[in-house]
Amino acid sequence: MKNIIVIAYLIHHSKGSEFAVAWDYITHMSKSNKLTVLYGSCDGFHKIGNTIEMEDYLANNPLQNVRFIPVKPSFMCMNYDYSVWGIHRFYKEYALWHRDVRAAVLDLLEHNNYDLIHYLGPIGYREPGFLYGLNIPYIWGPIGGMAFTDFRIFKGANEIKGGLQLLIKKIFNEIQLRFSPRVKDAMSKADLVIGCTKRTTQIIKKIYNVPNTRLLYFTQNCLQNEYPLEYEKFERDIIDVVWVGRIDAGKSLITALRALAGCKYKDKYRLHVIGLKGSQYNKCVEYIKNNSISELVQFYGKIPREGVLEIIKNAHLHIITSLIDVNPTIMWECMSYCVPTISMANNGIEDIVNDNTGFLVKLASYNKVVNEFSNTLDSIALNPSILRIKAENIAEDRRRFAWVNRVKKINKQYEIAIQNYQNGRKKEN
Questions:
Q1: What residues are paired with 318 via a beta bridge?
Q2: pTM here?
């Protein structure tokens, strides 16, 4: 059993993708390791140091072999509401938070023996922290945020502001990838770097020349549970499709609505939309009314996780139209219920979904992408038995994404990281 320091800024036991990456890792890896977890927020990227909710939860629900340490921002961190002040202000403050983390880690190392440090999340590469180069094996990842939205599908943002934000993000990402000295330094000094998609791993290798001995591909998350296939739902005439996410430019619900409106057999479908009302909500509602699909779409807003899972369990199909997501937690939850996914082959989803277990739409011009979604939905409506076949294939295939297998792989890679450190960086220090 190894003694590991884990850095996980975002963590929560029942929230979305970024939170789940950390929580799922900790709950599973703590069964075979002792973990000291330093975290900074359970409330998203809005305010650094908002950890009260997790502190209260952990007081009543402790995890064996885990010590949680909330790292509050120092006096230098102004703790703005970053949803107002902007993401750039957040990253300045986030870097200061990482300096506070470094001070806390140095204190831990002075008084305890640890085998390695694992900077777990969030997955974005932009802030590498300040723990690489210490006299201890260091792992960074899974890392994401490098595989940018394809220019051809920017129209899916459905607004000038949203499209412009994607463009600016793409430009700044390209610049930072190639010219950030701290990111480059972290890549060179990490004893193991984990990319969250195959494409990300290729980018890391190409730009930073990280050798295969220090580079690994792991999905952002993996399968938490495996539930039996609900065969009764296939007796229904209506095909229930679930879409989950914030209704904003990046998630592009409008793409799903356009695809549905373009179907010849749209009356065969019911689209269940779950998520917060974002910047695109009113435009989506207007589109639904103008295209006479009001009876085919149901909005649920933000509902408890139990309600989300109940809708997923009864769904025949899950649709992802996000322009930015890699392999979000909702995809794994759908897989746990043997619900196939239809998505663009974009940003890593194609690493998980294949022709046996789902439906992939090739990237092309935005209009062609929408048409391909529509055509795929029409083909399913004409041959709905394909959904049962793919669901059964998921039941057979999903085991390879189970956490029980992931734990074994991570523990093995910990040994490799320690060996890399002993063979290389330890000598340099």
A1: 242, 341
A2: 0.85
